[in-house]
Specification:
The chain has 80 residues and is mainly beta. It has one domain. The chain contains one helix and six strands. The strands form three sheets. A two-stranded antiparallel sheet has the order 1-2. A two-stranded antiparallel ribbon has the order 3-4. A two-stranded antiparallel ribbon has the order 5-6.
C-alpha cells in the first residue's frame, strides 16, 4: 500500500497523467501522480484539478487548483 498524492489515504494507487496523453502529455515522472481510485474518479469528473508539481525546500508538492481538505471527499472502496 502507498499514500495518495492528493488525499493522503493509504491504499493501492493508480497512475494519473497530469496532462493527458491525448493532449500531448508524456509518461515522464513530472507528468505523473499516483493517486487513489477515489481521487482519480474526482479528477476525471473535474471535481479536483491537478495543476502540477511544485518544488519546495521539503521536496515536490502536488499543486491542486483549490487548497481544500480532501479526506472528507474520499471514500474507501468496499466499505459501508
Amino acid at each position: 500500500m502507498e499514500i495518495c498524492n492528493i488525499c493522503g489515504i493509504e491504499m493501492i494507487l493508480e497512475r494519473h497523467h497530469i496532462v493527458s496523453r491525448s493532449k500531448g502529455g508524456g509518461n515522464e515522472n513530472s507528468n505523473i501522480c499516483e493517486i487513489c481510485p477515489n481521487c482519480h474518479v474526482l479528477v476525471h469528473r473535474g471535481e479536483i484539478i491537478v495543476d502540477g508539481w511544485y518544488h519546495s525546500t521539503g521536496g515536490y508538492i502536488l499543486v491542486l487548483s483549490e487548497d481544500e481538505s480532501l479526506k472528507d471527499r474520499c471514500w474507501i472502496v468496499g466499505k459501508d
